[in-house]
Here is the input.
Amino acid sequence: MVGDVVGLAHEASTIPNVPAPHSCPTAADRMAAAGLADEPSFAFWNNLECRPCDWVEDWDHRPAGEFHEKTWYRFVPTATFADPFVDAGRALLLLDTVLWPVAMRGHPENREMYAPSVDVHAQFHALAPHDAFLLTDAHSPSARDGLVSGVGTVWGESGTLLASGGQQMLCRPRALNPNPGERGER
Here is the structure.
């Protein structure tokens, strides 16, 4: 967007220390090994190959209070895009998607909620159109009074910080929405 300009240049951020994407089994492989359904419970997840850096073996009995998650994602069937705006959209879509599941991760006792975005914001730092896998480092620092916050960063396989941002979500009982899907479920 800014073209070739003279200015400061530095990289003071470091990609989280996580396994490479190909060394992490896919969520689908892990679910199949556990004898669980091979289809995500919400069709949107069919657009992503998900490779969690850590895995919760028993999602229904997961520990409470863990609101942080690092996961590699690759869009399918097309992983990257030549158009820089479309390619940057990969990071924006992830920032708008992964923050609700990370909030739900810490609430095993309450499965009857969903949370549409009230707002989402992103700062784009770089492009990595040759990096098929993107790492999300997602955290939900606060939830109260019907609002849930999430913050995250998106990194390319090359270690480049691509985007950072967050969202505010309105947490609502599923009963108020006749078809909210299973966003946040594994």
Notes: The longest strand covers residues 134-144. The helical segments are 27-33, 84-97, 99-105. Residues 84-97 form the longest helix (14 residues).
